[in-house]
Write a structure and sequence with these properties.
Number of strands: 2
Helix content: 25-40%
Number of helices: 3
Largest sheet: 2 strands, parallel
Number of domains: 1
Structural class: alpha+beta
C-alpha cells in the first residue's frame, strides 16, 4: 500500500473519487499535486503531450505488465489537417 496518493487534473477536484480512494486506501494520505506545488492541470497537459509525442514517434503508450493488455499498442490516432490559405 502506498503511504501517499497525489491526484491531478480534473480527478483531483472530484470529491467522490477522493472519498472512494480514501475508503480503499485507508492507510494512505490522499492529496493533490497542487498541495505539493505542482499545478495539476499543467501536469495533465504534459501527460497528454507525451502520449501524443509517443504516438507520432510510433512508441507504444500502454503498459501491458500493468494493465494486463495482450501486447503493447500505439494509443490514439493521427489525423493531419489541411490548412487552406487564400
Amino acid at each position: 500500500m502506498p503511504d501517499e496518493v497525489l491526484l491531478c487534473g480534473g480527478g483531483s477536484r472530484n470529491s467522490y473519487l477522493r472519498q472512494r480512494l480514501q475508503a480503499e486506501l485507508t492507510s494512505a494520505q490522499i492529496g493533490t499535486t497542487d498541495e505539493v506545488g505542482i499545478d495539476g492541470d499543467f501536469k495533465e497537459a504534459i501527460a497528454f503531450a507525451v502520449l501524443a509525442y509517443w504516438r507520432v514517434k510510433s512508441i507504444p503508450g500502454n503498459l501491458p505488465q500493468v494493465t494486463g493488455a495482450v501486447k503493447p499498442v500505439l494509443l490514439g490516432d493521427v489525423h493531419p489537417s489541411i490548412h487552406l490559405c487564400k
